[in-house]
């Protein structure tokens, strides 16, 4: 992946299987919301001060801005022809929550079938709030060629 597995100086802490499953579900819900234009549902997967940083380094913070950003993306007709597939998810506990990394491929749907659009890594910092795991930050890291 595009970054070290664990920030220097942090120690691995055990994370229960239920939390790991909830984090995998969170990542899946994000992908579904992104691919179906559910901007408010996508923003609700972040903490109130959550931040999303795209592969070009542009950041959006706060649920309201996250929803606005997702709606703006969905207004582009090309966005409706992109499907995201996520795999190779790793999750580990951190002192203030959890960190997940995953590989994601976006596929472009067109009249003749599908083509791979890009491959990226997603690096997530996660916090538990009101009994739910949420993204406190999600950073897209371009895959090195």
From TrEMBL:
InterPro entries: NTF2-like_dom_sf, SnoaL-like, Steroid_delta5-4_isomerase
Pfam family for this entry, one: SnoaL_4
Domain SnoaL-like: 17-139
Name under which the protein is recorded: SnoaL-like domain-containing protein
Organism this protein belongs to: Actinacidiphila reveromycinica
């Amino acid at each position: 992946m595009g970054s070290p597995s664990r920030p220097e100086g942090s120690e691995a802490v055990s994370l229960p299987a239920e939390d790991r499953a909830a984090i995998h579900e969170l990542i899946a819900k994000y992908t579904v919301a992104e691919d179906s234009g559910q901007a408010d549902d996508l923003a609700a997967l972040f903490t109130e001060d959550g931040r999303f940083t795209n592969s070009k380094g542009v950041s959006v913070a706060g649920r309201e801005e996250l929803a606005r950003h997702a709606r703006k993306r969905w207004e582009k007709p090309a966005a409706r022809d992109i499907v995201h597939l996520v795999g190779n998810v790793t999750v580990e506990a951190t002192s203030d929550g959890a960190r997940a990394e995953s590989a994601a491929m976006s596929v472009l749907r067109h009249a003749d079938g599908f083509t791979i659009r890009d491959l990226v890594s997603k690096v997530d910092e996660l916090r538990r709030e009101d009994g739910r795991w949420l993204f406190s930050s999600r950073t897209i890291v371009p895959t090195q060629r």
